[in-house]
Amino acid sequence: MRRRRAIEDLQAGLSRKLAEFGGDSVVLAEVVADLARLNDLIDKHNRYYPIEANLPVDPRTGALLERGVPWRPLARVTFDDLTSGR
């Protein structure tokens, strides 16, 4: 839960930073570094969350279930995702 919150907070902060400072080269360098950190957090979340949450497996399909629906890993964030507000 803490890791997911960190992902959401970092992504929101990066989007805000890009919106406020646009094409400043120093800000862009910071965003690129933070984007790598964000995607690393997402990779760790996707790797460990199903185990930590003890997600059940659908016996028919073999899919991991989260609250009764198939669990989907978080998608990696791209620079375009940040600028489009996704």
Can you offer a commentary on this structure?
- This protein is mainly alpha-helical and 86 residues long.
- It has one domain (2-84).
- It is built from three helices and two strands, in the order H-H-E-E-H.
- A two-stranded antiparallel ribbon has the order 1-2.
- Helix 1 (2-21) runs antiparallel to helix 2 (25-52).
- The mean pLDDT is 90.
Instruction: Please state how the strands of the largest beta sheet are arranged side by side.
Output: 1-2
Strand content: under 5%
By DSSP (H or I, 4+ residues per run), the number of helices equals 3
Share in helix? 55-70%
- How many strands, which pairing sense, and closed or not: the largest β-sheet? 2 strands, antiparallel
Shape: elongated
Number of domains: 1
Mean pLDDT: 90
Q: How large, in whole angstroms, is the Cα Rg?
A: 16 Å
Distance between the termini: 21 Å
How many individual β-strands? 2
Low-confidence stretches: none
Walk me through the topology.
Elements: H1 2-21, H2 25-52, E1 65-66, E2 69-70, H3 79-84
Helix pairs in contact: 1-2
Descriptors:
86 residues, mainly alpha, two-stranded antiparallel ribbon, 5% strand, elongated
Provide a short characterization of the protein structure:
Helices cover 63% and strands 5% of the residues. It is mainly alpha-helical and 86 residues long.
